[in-house]
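Fig. S4 source data, part A: sequence.
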Amino acid sequence: MSLDSLRPKVQWILTPIAEAFSKLPITPNMWSVVSLICAFIAGVFFAFGQPFFGVLFVVLNSFLDVLDGALARHTGAASPIGDYLDHVFDRYADVFIITGIIVYGVQTWQAPVPAWVIGLFAITGVLLSSYMGTQAQAVGLKRNYGGVLGRADRLVLLMLFGLAEFIYPAPILFGLPFLGWMLVVYGFFGHITAIQRFVMTLKELLKDARGQ
């Protein structure tokens, strides 16, 4: 079970926050754009070897990413356009952040496996796992948040590994620092999550087909 499945259980926290932000003259979609900008800035900081500030803007990105949906529901502004933008911006945010880490890795990591290979492994795992989750919606099912590594899990790992790298920026094993190993985790568990979601969705579709 990933942290994404816990979203309905934290609505009691989000509701008063959304109510407070609803008083500002900023729409949920505008907050989505600001969230994406924060992800881009985070990627730039990671690329320049500044994990503390990278994590800081990841926190802002995560907060605003949750806020825009909660605000849309609170104000009755939820729409397919907002949902679509949210999915698209999330994928771009993932790419910005991971690319920033890869850029820094290419310049500094001394691992047996090149940083760009590790990065490619990570980014394909992240994008495919997210694709499998939204693809369930495309075929008429609920969005699939299952699997071992959802976006919320990735963000928590990014914050933890990013702060660990800020405290200890040297390699910890096989020439890779904390953020390098985080990309390995992203790749390995991302691809496992993609397979899990594929199998879960396929089972649901087969079950529905038998029931017709």
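Fig. S4 source data, part B ends here. The longest helix spans residues 178-211.
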